[in-house]
Design brief:
Elements lengths: L14 H21 L17 H23 L3
Helix pairs in contact: 1-2
C-alpha cells in the first residue's frame, strides 16, 4: 500500500494567520503611538494639541483597524 499522505501541521494557525496577526499588532502599536503626547509640562497651562485630528480621529481608527485585523487573523481558515 503506497498511500501518500500530506504532512499535517500541529500548529493552530497557518503562516498566513501569523502574518495577519503581525500586521494587526503593528497597527495597534502605530495607533497607540499616534495617540500619545499632547501634554503640558506646566500644570497651570492648558495645551489644545490634545484635541488634534491625529489624536481624536486618526489614532482610534487605526487602533480599531488593528483589533479588526487581529480578530480576522484568529478566525481565518487555513
Amino acid at each position: 500500500m503506497n498511500v501518500s499522505k500530506q504532512p499535517t501541521s500541529n500548529f493552530a494557525f497557518s503562516r498566513s494567520n501569523y502574518v495577519w496577526l503581525g500586521v494587526g499588532i503593528a497597527n495597534l502599536i502605530l495607533g497607540y503611538a499616534l495617540m500619545s503626547g499632547g501634554g503640558s509640562d506646566d500644570p497651570n497651562v492648558f495645551d489644545e494639541s490634545i484635541f488634534s485630528f491625529r489624536r481624536i480621529t486618526l489614532a482610534p481608527t487605526v487602533v480599531l483597524a488593528g483589533y479588526g485585523l487581529i480578530f480576522y487573523s484568529i478566525l481565518k481558515k487555513r
